[in-house]
Amino acid sequence: MIQTDIIIIGAGPCGLFTVFEAGLLKLRCHLVDALPQPGGQLTEIYPKKPIYDIPGYPSILAGELVDKLMEQIAPFKPGFTLGERAEGIDQDDEGIFTLTTSRGTQIQAPVIVIAGGLGCFEPRKPPIENITRFEDKGVDYIIRDPEKYHDKSIVIAGGGDSALDWTLHLSEIAKEVLLIHRRREFRAAPDSVEKALQLAQKGKIQLVTEAQAVGLNGNGKLNEVVIKQKEKGSYNQRADYFIPLFGLSPKLGPMANWGLNINKNAIEIDTRDYSTNIPGIYAVGDINTYPGKLKLILCGFHEAAIMVQSAFKIVNPDKKLSFKYTTVNGVTGF
After folding, report:
1. What is the mean pLDDT of residues 12-20?
2. Does residue 327 belong to any structural domain of this protein?
3. Do residues 39 and 11 make contact, with C-beta atoms less than 8 angstroms apart?
């Protein structure tokens, strides 16, 4: 039986930063994640994607951010149970939770923090009849290594931030990039849309709106995407890779049955301390929801900092918490 002060479900960026904030208060943490390595989506889905909204970093690769977070929490020696999904929880008369994983590992703590990002997730696939035939043979739902597309012809489908961000990034790597979107307007950040329009005007990428991919052609490997456009009708587009970026379909998995208040696959919390309806259980990052919620890593960092102040009182009910700035000498114990 593993015993700790805080069980953190999810070893993504918000889960990792929770370790740092808890460590400043001398609270021990143990992280549980179904993925085989820390980092969550940043490691599993887009380790080479630049991130632009982390304070102090004009640009940082997702994988590099994970490395920095791991370096930051190393002095606090957190425990990790990786490659195992959080299955069930029990609570005894003294308020101590026992979490059991999919492999039977049991961890005890008076506090649980759910930092599971989108929970269990899978990519949303376009309704193309033969798309599964070309998966890993030209169809990619996730971009892990951009260099894979060096000097290749790419068709990207989507209208959100991920589709625009990767279009901009791959425009400097691929031989040619075509972005198709079923509407005229994009849902991405205005700055990204403006940059994409500028690249299209310069002929560095192609933008095809009011269109969608309706078919795929190839003999063992993709070589064409069939595009249906409102004005031109259907035509075949040469492509080495087709990358539909329609987001992820989130599923809470077993935690949906834990008695938490759920709203559209997200956990409702109290913004005073990011506590759930179950005392002792908190939720931070993309997994939670509240009025005005922004699904940004930096917002999850803020939520973690506030949350651990409340968690301290549960772990140490007889101690008085005295808030100190990290600039105070000796606070971190490094």
Report:
1. 96
2. no
3. yes
